[in-house]
Each structure stands twice: as C-alpha cells, then as structure tokens.
C-alpha cells in the first residue's frame, strides 16, 4: 500500500503541466495549439522564447528528480535494500514520465517526457546524467538539432551503464535499453525530417507559432 501511494504521488507530480500553465498565464495561449503541439521544453523555447523555455525545462526536470527521491520517504533500508530501492526509483520515475506525457491536470495531453526522464536519471545516478548532458550539448552545438541531440543522448544512456559505470541492477539496465528504444520511437517523425533534410534547428529566441520541431 505504501508503494502504491508514492507511485500515485509521483504520477501526480509528473502531471503538473508546466508548459501549459506558463503559456496560458503569461502568454495567453495554449502551447499545445502552436508549433509541434507538445507541452514540453523544446516547443516552449520555440513558441515562448528562451526564458520561458528554460523555466519549463528546469521544472520538468525537477519533476523527475523529486519523483525518484520520494523513495527516501519510504520505510526501506538504504543500506540493506539497495536493489529494491533502485527498482522503486525506476517505478517512481516512470510514473512521473507517464504523468508528464498524459497529465491528469491538462486533459491527458502533455509532452514527450525527455526533460522529466533526464531529471529521473539525475535523481538516480548523477554521474550518468552529467555525461548525458555533455553528449547532448556537444551534439546540439555541432548540429543545432534538439531532436538528434536527444536521440544521441538516449542511445548513450545504456552504453554508459554497460561499458563505463558497470551498473549491477538488472532492471536499471533493462530500463536504459527501453528508454533508448522509446526515445527513438517517439522521435520517428523527427528522424524522417532529419533524413529528408527539413528538420528545424533550435533558435533560443521567441518565435512565431508554426515550427515543427518536437520535444
């Protein structure tokens, strides 16, 4: 019963529709009716500008961080039940991501959950998160494609666990592989546009509605 309560709480935290709230209260629009139609950080950057985009990205990341740290409030022993705790953190993080993608507070229409996913990894394994940031930023600086940077970082996630950090928890490894596959699948439209050469590049300034890049 204890775990069910915390998993539900993680979903509710993830459901906080940051981009929707910011767009409605400060810009008088619904972010989901502009650009890619996603309530995420990338679309916020493109539609509402740099400051709003950064705010949305940080809050969406914090949703993942806070969700996995709910494990600290349980009765589990962090010294004796490490594997169970990591498994619970994965479950909490996934619930937060589910909430971000299907937010109960915003008609179940959210974003793709990349920022919340990163926050989840940051909360569980900060060292891995740091390397993923480096991979993401290097790719972004080289290509200016947010979608390609997200895909590259997601593919680097399981590689880091298997060959660099040698993580022992089996479920964590399975989660990393599943995450990479999921990010690639959810970015299939972006991949098609990249292949066709018409994917939008990031611009850290306020933009008019209508861009196609997605988070």
Task: Give the topology.
Layout: H1 2-14, H2 18-27, H3 41-48, H4 50-68, H5 82-101, H6 114-124, H7 126-143, H8 146-163, H9 170-186, H10 188-196
Helix pairs in contact: 1-4, 1-5, 3-4, 4-5, 4-6, 5-6, 6-7, 7-8, 8-9
Taking all Cα atoms into account, the compactness measure Rg is 17 Å
What is the helix fraction of residues, given as a range?
55-70%
**Mean of pLDDT:** 88
Q: Got a strand count? A: 0
Give the H and E element order: HHHHHHHHHH
Number of domains: 2
Per DSSP, the total helix count is 10
Helix/strand/pairing category: mainly alpha
Please outline the major beta sheet: none
Task: Characterise this structure.
This protein has two domains: 119 residues, no CATH class; 78 residues, no CATH class. It starts with a helix and ends in a 19-residue tail after the last helix. It is globular and about 50 Å long. 47% of the residues are buried. Helix 4 packs antiparallel against helix 5 and helix 8 packs antiparallel against helix 9. The C terminus is likely disordered. It has ten helices and no strands. The longest helix has 20 residues. The protein is mainly alpha-helical. 67% of the residues lie in helices and 0% in strands.
